[in-house]
Structure formats: C-alpha cells, structure tokens
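Supplementary Data S3. Sequence and structure tokens for construct A.
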Amino acid sequence: MPKFKISGYKDQRDCTKTEKRETRSRVYYKCGPLNTIKDVLHQRPGWVEVKDDREWDFCWCDLVGLRETFEQGYMKEHMRINHFPNYYELSRKTHMVKNLKKYRRHLEKIAGRSEASKCDFFPTTFALPNEYHLFLEEFKKNPGSIWIMKPAGRSQGKGIFLFKKLRDMYSRMEGTCSEEQKDTAEVESYVVQSYIEKPYLINGRKFDLRVYVLVTSFAPLKAWLYRDGFARFSSTRFSLSSFDDKYMHLTNVAVQKTAPDYDPEKGCKWQLQQLRRYLTAKKGRDVVEALFKEMDNIFVSSLQSVQKVIINDKHCFELYGYDILLDENLKPWLLEVNASPSLSASSPEDFKMKCSLLEDMLHIVDMEGRLTGKEKRVGGFDLMWNDGPIYVENAELESLGISGFPANTHLGCVNDREKQLRELLKPFPQEYDITHHMNE
C-alpha cells in the first residue's frame, strides 16, 4: 500500500468534514428487481420499500437506470445512491487502462521510476481501435506470445478469446460482432492484453480472486476492504495446448456453470480464508503476507488513478468487485474492476457471505445514523484508506517507540463480524422521525 498521498493528484471537490448523521428509525428505499440485495433490504429493521415515483431515502439501481435517477433532480442531504455518476472510469476496461497508464506516468514524473513501478500490476494492455498501432508494435517485438482479447462493454466472459496470430484476432473479432453492430458498421471497443501464460495453479486448475472494496468518497478518498471474498476456479485442468476451451481459461462463474461436468452442489469457489490457509501452508506466512500487501497496493493505487476524474458526490457510494489473478511467482495482477459485481449466489455458503457483505455495507452507509464516523472497522469491512493509509494501532509497540504499524487490512482473515457489530452498534432507533411519508 502506498505510504503517502500524491500531491497534485487529488480532487478537491466536496472535501467536507465528516458530519454527524441524523438518526432515523424509518428508511424508505427503492430497489430494482435484483436478488440478494433485495432480500437484505427487505429484512433490514425499519426499512420500507417504495414503488413508482414516491420519494426515497436510499436507492439501489442498476447501471442502466443510473442516469435516469440522477436526472430526476435535486437530492436531499440524507439521500444515498449506490453509484457515482461516472463510475465507468474505473470499471469500463478501456477507461481503467487509460487512467492507470496516466497515473503511472504521473507518478514517474513526480516521484521517479521506482515509485511508478508500484503501478506495474496490470498486464501489458492496449485499447483498440485507438491504440492499434502501439499494440502492433508490441506484438511484433514478442513473436509467439499469447494475447487475450476482451470486449470493453461486455461482461461475464462474453466475447473473450485468446490468439497468437493477427489473422486469428481479425477472424475472431468478426465472429463476435452482434448483428446490430454489423448492420450499423459500429466498431466495438476492445482491450487486448498480454496473457498470463504461467498462472499459479491449484490441483492443475487456474483461478482468480474476487475481492470487494467499498468507496464512500473520492475527495478525500475513503475506502474499505472486506475480509471475505472467494477464489473462482476453472473446471478444466490448465494447458496452453488449446485456446478455444473457455472452461480452461475463463474463471467467470457465468461461464463455468455451463460446463458439462459442473456440480451446483460443489460449485467452483473457495472462500478467501480457505485460500489463504492453503497458500500459507504451501509457501509460508511471510510470502503470503507480502502477497496480500501487494494486493492492498492494487486497490489503493487503482482508486487513486481515478480521483481526478470521478465526479465526487456526497450522496454516492460504490461497491467494487476486483478480479485478481496470481501468477506462478504469486505476483498479483489486476484483471478488471466491476462496478456491479454479481450478487447472485451459487451456493448457500455464497449466499450467506454476500448477505453479510451487503448488510455491513449498509451499516457503513449508515442511513440510521448509528456511527460516529471515526470507526476503523464495521462488521467485515476494515477502513484501509481515509485521505491516507490506515494502520493497526498497537499500544505495546507504541510504548516501545516502534513505528511502522501494519496496515489495517485483513483480507482472508477471520471475520468475526457478528461479535464486532454487537460491540459497535447501538440498537436500531425506535422513534419514527422521517415525516415525508407519514401518510403511507
């Protein structure tokens, strides 16, 4: 994790101090026809769903309905919505690459190559068609290398393919175009990346990590890291002998659940605690600690890369789903960031984890006004950045004059969230003090 703030690379808009939230016993929410989040909102004490155009306090909308929600006009002080206006600066593949490259150049200019190297956590990547000539130059420098092509505007593994030869790239691009794109002569945007040819394998299978980061402000940056997450495994043993086997190369659950031998009872996931224990047994504690520290750097640096471009609105928050791949040397690589990570559950264990994630997210958003604003942990979320790095306080070390406390991140560690919440939160307010729905 970066140890300092980068001067000149911070958006000054809306840099307000933490304000004490009004206590509420009744919260009116609006939610689209989604699964797990709808269940969580429905079961939250004092929360009432509103229909049609009735005024709401909290809105959970999909990306399609975001613009319409913002265009409805002025939002009152207490209202909250689950996306920033231009969320896509980090989650759209082409924008993410552009912003990360720009941020790396900025770091090199003000702090030198050593500091800029901390951004070397994403594969060699080009946005097509804009950077086609740059890609072609790199392609010719590395004959025989494998590349992976990803449509910028699609998800769940749709349209992704591997190639070694340019003619294969052209033919596959032609084959993945929709009929509508062919009719309108629309050019689809892609990112093309150097393929990680030697991923770290478990039982011969490739996997990636899904990690959750909650951002409640970009100016100043305030970000929380969730302790739980999962590793998503492919169903086929890894090999470079075939580029066309999507069940071998793509770990997306949406892809894997269509595999002929997919078992819905077993699924294709490990919880991060299980993965961390496995890696510690295989590689040792120090190696795994260094790995997770590198991932902390990925989360913070990627968020810092969009601070100047994200429109910071105090009504907004964002739950990001990070996809991380480990290579054979346990170096973590950022694959992509999702602004609408799937909340569908593939097993009872997965459903429980995602419900806990969403409940703790709502605790932090704090519509009921039960927090002080000074918390470093809320349930399974640990505050990792608040206009600067957050460290674990250790009174014993401090008394000895020892500095360099560890970062306040506990990814893949014990998540005793229920005990922590009992100690942290006051009971839900009993009095009804919101008046704009008195006639319901």
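Construct B, processed identically:
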Amino acid sequence: MEPRDSRRTSSHFGRYASLDANCGVQSQTYLVRCHILVRPLAGHCLFTNFNVDVDEDILWTPANSLPIQHSDWIDDQSNFPQDTLDFVLFFHSHGQNVLGQGQVQQVFDALDAILSLPGYEAMCADSTYVDTTTNQTTCEIDGLVQFWNLDSQQFATQVSSDEETIQALSSSTFPDGTKVSPNAIFGQAQRDETTDLLTSCQGYTVVIRFPDTDAAESFEDDALDRILDLRQQWNDDSTKRLKLEVTADGSFSDEFERAILKDIPLIPIVFVIMSVFTAIIFFKRDKVQSRSLLGFGAVLAVLLSLLSGFGLLFMIGTPFTSMTQILPFVIFGVGLDDAFIIFGSYARTNPKTKTEDRIGETIDDIGISITLTSITSTLAFGLGCLSTIPAVYWLCLYAFPTVVFIYLYQVTFFIAWIVLDERRIQHNKRDCCVCITAVKEDPKDAEDEPETKVISDEEPTAQEEDRNDNAETKQPLGNMFDGFMARYAEFLLQPVVKVLVVVAFLALAAICAVSASKLSQQFEFTEVMPDDSYVTDFFYAYEDYTVRNSINPYVYFRYVDQSDPAIQEQMESYVNDLVAMDAVKEQPDFFWLRDFKAFLNDNSDQVGPLTFNQQIDRFLSDPVLYDLYGSHIVRDENGTITTSRVEIYFENVSEEDVNDQIDTLKEQRHVTARQPINQGLKEWKFFTYDGIYNIWEFYTKTQEELILTTITGVVAVTGVALIFIPHWTASLFVLPMICILYVDLLGVMQWANVHVNAVTYITVVMAIGLLVDFIMHVLLRYYECSGNRHERTVDLLKTMGSSILVGGISTFLGTLPLAFSTSTIFFTIFIAFVALVTLGLAHGLILLPVVLSIIGPEDDIPRPKSTFSSKTHNKDKMNMESNSDDMDALDEHEKQLRMTERTLQVTDHVESSTKVPTDEE
C-alpha cells in the first residue's frame, strides 16, 4: 500500500507557520493579547466563583444511580424527621479494660465540657427530641451516661466503687425502661456467663444528636475545639486512664477541605521547581547566548494556561475538589513538553536567517507533532468527561480546556517570547539582565557558541544554501542531553543491544501482565485526610476496639398499606431475609412492627377492639416506645402510616475489603429485588439505604468505567494517529505500544502496593493522554525522517530524543511536590506518576526505536521541504518565474503548489550533484 501524501497536511501547517511568523513579527502585541485573555478569566473568576466541594456523597456517587434516587426520596419526600448532626465521643485505653468508676467519671467530664458550653440549651431548643422524663425539648444523648440520667452528680452520689459501677453498667435496661443495646455503647464487651456481669470492655461510645440548624453547626465547631483541647490534656496527663477520640457530622468535610487548603501552597513550589529546571536546561556559560529567561517564559506560558483554564471553569461555577487539586502538578509537568520540542526544532534551524523565517520553519517542522499530541491529550480528558462519577467528570472538565490553552499559549505566547529573546541576543543583552549590554566576548568563549548575527538582505549563494540546509540538522539544542542522545542512538542500535532490549521488554510485559491481574480494589477514606487528622484517629480506634462498625443501613417500607397483616408479614419476611445475609450477625435491636405486635399481645383486652390507627396511637403513647420509634414511623393527617423504617447492622462487612463491600451491596439488592412486593417495579416499595452505599456504588462502577474509558481512549488515539500521521502503518505501532504501556503501568502499580480506588482510577484515566505523547512524538519524527530504518531511527533520536527526555523529567518534577502532601493518597499519585514517566520514557526512547529499526516502514514517504523555508531561500527563482506567461495565468494557490514542486526538483538536483550548479541549471 502506498503511503499517504502529506503535502495537504504540510500546506496547512505552511499557513500555520505564516501565522506564527506573524506572531514573531508582532511578538509584543501577542504578549499583550495573552495578558488581556488571562486577566478576566483568572483574575476575576478565581476570586469570585471559587467553590470547594468536599461532600463525599456528591463526589463519588455515580449520577442517577440507585443510591442517589433513594437518598433524594428520603430527603425530599419521605417526611422522616430531619437528620440530626451526630457528635460522637469514643473513649478507650488502647485495648485495655476500661471498666471502672474513674473511667466513667472521665466520660462525664467530657460530656459536661460540652453541656456547659454557652449556647447549648438555646441550640438544643430547635431539636425535635423530647425528654420523656422532663417533657422538655433537648438534644438526644445516647451512651452509658443514660444509666445515671446524663447527670454526673447522680453518678457521684450513687456510685462509690468499681464494683457498683460495673453492676450498673451490666443492667439490660436504662432507668426509664428503655432496653440497652450493648454493642452500641460498649466496645468488645465480655460478660460472666453465670452472673451476666460485665468483666471487660475496651471502649465507650457516647452520641450527642444536635439539630440540623445553622446554630448547631456553629456550636459543633465550638464543641470540637473544646473536646480536642480536653483530648490533648488527657494525652499529656499520665494519670488519665482513658484516651478520647471525637468526630462530628461536619468533621470529614472540614478535614477534607483542610487537606486541600493545606496542600495548595505546594502549587507555588512546583512553579519554582519547574522554573529552576527550565533555567538549567536553557542555561549556557555565555552570558548572552544563555536562554534561562526563555525557560522561565515556557513555565509562565503553562501558568497562564492553568489560570485561563481554571478561571474559565470557575466562571461557570464548576466545583473545585481535592482531585482537581492534583491537576496543576500534572499540567506543569506535561505542559512544558511542547516548549522543549518547539525550541529544540528552532535551535536546529539556520541561525543566519531572519527570526520570523526560523519560526516559520520551526512550525513547519514540529507543528503536526505538537498538534497531534495536544489532540490526543485533549481527547483522553474529553472521554473522561463522559464518566458518571462527578469527581472524575469535574477533574477531566478542568483538564480539557487547560490542555487546549497550553497548546494555544505555546504557539503564541512562547513563540513571541522566543522572538523577544532572539532580539535580546542580537542586541548583545545579557540573559536575565536584559538591561545590561555584555562586553565583547573573549575569543575562547566565542568558539563555544554558534554565531547568531542576522545576515544582510542579500540572498545566500547556492553554496551557502547547501551549508545552511545541512546546518538545520546540526544545530544542537545546547544542553547536556544532546550529546548524550547522539552517543546513545549508536549504542542502542547495535544488534546485540536490540536483541537484549526486545527480550527484556517482552519479559517485563509478561511479568506486568501477571502482576496487573492481581490488582485489587481498596480504599480507605482516611487516606484523603491530613496526616494529623483527629478523624483518622477516631476511626482507627473505633474499628480496633468495637465489634460494631459504622455500617447501619435503614430498611424502608413505603407505598403500601402497613395496617394490612399480609403486608406486615412481608415486611418481617424482608427483614429476616436481610438478617440471613452473611453481612448481618443478628436481628435488629429495635423493630417497631415486632414490638407493636408484642404490645398488642400484652394489651389485647384494651386495644384489641380498636382500629389499627388507634392501636398505633396507644402504642406511641408509651414514652419509652415513642422515644424508640417516634422517628421511625411517618403518619399522615389521618394517622395512617405512610412510611416506616428499621435499623439493621452490617457487622460482618470489612470496611477495608472493597470486594466484600461490593458483594454486600449486590447481595442486599438481590434480596430486595426478589421480594414479591418489589417484583416488576422500577421503584421498589421495600429497600435499604445507608450513606456508605454511595461509595460502594462507586466501587461497582469503577471497573466498568475503567474498562470502557480504556478501550475508547486507546481506540480514539489510534484513530487520531491513523488520520494525522502520514503513513497507514502508524496505527500498527500505536495500538500495541499503548496497550503494552497500559498493562505495564498497572503491573508496576500493583508491585508498589497501589490499589484500584478513586484516585488511581483518575490517574489511569489521565495515563492514556500522557502515555501516548511518548509514542506519538517518536513515531511522527520517524516518518518525517529520510533514509533506511537505521538512519531514520538515529535521526529521530538525535533530533527529538533530548526533547522527549527533558519533557519526561519535567513531568516527574511537576508531580514531585505531591510526595510531600499531607494526605497519603496524593503520595500514591506521586508513585503512580513516577511509574508512568519511567515506563513512558523507556518505551518511547528504548523499545519503540528498536522496533522501528527492525520492522519500521522504509517506503519513500513524501514530506516536502518546508513551504515556508522554500519561499524564503528561493526568492530569486520565484521572481524569475513570475514573469512567465503560464505563471500569470494561475491563481495564487496554484502558484504556491507550482513553486513547491519546482523547489523540490531544484533541491533534489542540488543534493545529487557533486558540483555547484550553473545559472542555466
């Protein structure tokens, strides 16, 4: 099959080159235009529409999923009492027995510290809970303090020893007659089989339920400050037996936001790191020829891209999350790749020609390359926007325009900066100190740098043209990597080395494939907390010293006549089926229907003749029963039950084993779906729900979306390569290489003990767009080079290798500050990106060149010499031809094509001749 003709693509980039040459002529104008663009996007929107979203229910729950539907119904339609803001205290002694008078006194000390805070009674006045003993509205408090009616004075009066304390704690009911739920208030409790007295206990739990009001949220902050101070005092006092842990309803969000804000200062650090790195890359010993200031311009272009992209999303109100926070580090790393490639090509042009002509030749040379990789990266993030998971969707939505802005700023702002820097050199101004003119160079120093003086208006002779053309591929980038790549290319392509490379990478792929198959899902939400978070301490202690985890879903009954005995039977049957699950140990502690039937049996003579609604009235008139079930039953104005619920406990579900959680979610759905009353219905009449279902739903969707995103991403970038790279064989290299890279990345992540979770999912989504850059630049350069396979491969490594290597290093340095993040999960991202960069460079600069040198195509792929440079170097020939009658009859477009063909003929003739051609020739 014949290679595709690339002249049409080249002609488009010839016009593109003319545009960038115009950018070079009007460099200051373009810089001003970029400033005008950034100012409203970044300046105004950053400080007006910045919105941090840390609600885990919103971030990770797939849109329109079953948990979202049930949650919306519970909040908006069920009419259950408004959820309370639970303030939880947990007391422990690192696994030791906490039974005793002194330990219980410490519990009362912590409780009194909260009850004595100013505003407590006023805040609790908005609660829906009524204390049956005092008949006053107050905040409900659950825990061992109920044995003494929440009164520390009563405890001090009634208890004088550890034995009396244990006797009181061992009771099966509280003084008001309410049954005790031991696992809810005691941690790892053990009892004497004979006396039923408690013998040991590893923890106490006390829950204070604040009303869901603004005043309560403000009070919650004050209470947290007071308890955290008390916690520190107890830690410092060796006489205190108990350790105090605390969490509140807003603790997770507050600590999540603190982690974000605490890591934001890392963004200026990455800017400094990248500025220093680029300054070193562009540095030369010569005070004038050094281009460190140009390196700073490249970093500034990326910064402007970030400000523009983020400002645009702030303007439309897109939330900023902790996942979005990782994007600046990634963008700073990958955003400089185009700058290195642009300047690398610019450095290879003839320094004797005019600057705007060199800019045109540069874009002709690498325009397709940087455009192609920008398209693939944008496409990869664009596909991520199809995700149903908001955290992933929002991150990709931020990345999508930012990558586009990077491309635009590199080909406008950075190009203009190159022109200004070139003018500085022509005026003999010092690098970084542009106001100082350098003294005449020492002859020894002058030998180290190529002459950059612009030639006169006279056109070069044929001999000078030939030398200038050859110089285009001999001008080094001027850093330590260029010499290394030249020596490296010859070493890599030795037959023995190529065999070793192929064998080594095949072995790596096989090992990584096996390793990738062992990847498991695991996510601990504490990983997104700051390292010093009190929330992390609470949940680790609660997990270690209690038998009951925090997974306690409600079972809901709706849209049915709950007075119907047949419906009641189905309700009980549903609860029994749920209890039969592996995740559940025992029947619920309190179930209104079960106790209602017991109430009817005990009072059959009094309530038997009454209607169902009247029986419910009598049932709830008991203060103890109302206290238990008043919030579990919703009735309309006629007293008819519209919906009800019962709480069960998933005590056998590991909070660390994601597969166990997914299995539990699926099993309870299977139990729910097979209930006779739910069959054939889209909206189940019986169902279970807990907030943890939101993240479990994320886990169930992760694998599906990851597979879908991977397949569509790989197919998309392969299609882009097939369209834009001027040879049909490109896709035969892109597809397998991306697949191998992807498998290797997953395998290495498994070696590093990185699990599939929310953050690694996002990393893998980004990996498609980042890994393809290492492949595309190499492939496109190979197809643009001439000669046999060996010559093409050597040429691509010499001309593009150093830019790719430096770009890979910049990506690593861009994510380096994440290693110092306050949250464990961002360090995980750093590990993943180290693997990504290492594998990308290895496959792009080692394996792919070897493969191309062995089986790369050797067809004569037409790549016309730069349209822009052809017009510049052959102006006299074009002037001679312009007087011919045939040329006058052609329009401007046809003239361009005719002169391109004539230029190719002249160039081929000059290169094949052993002597300087005569004027007739």
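Residues 1-17, 446-478, 861-895, 902-921 have pLDDT under 50 and may be disordered. The first helix runs from residue 7 to 25.
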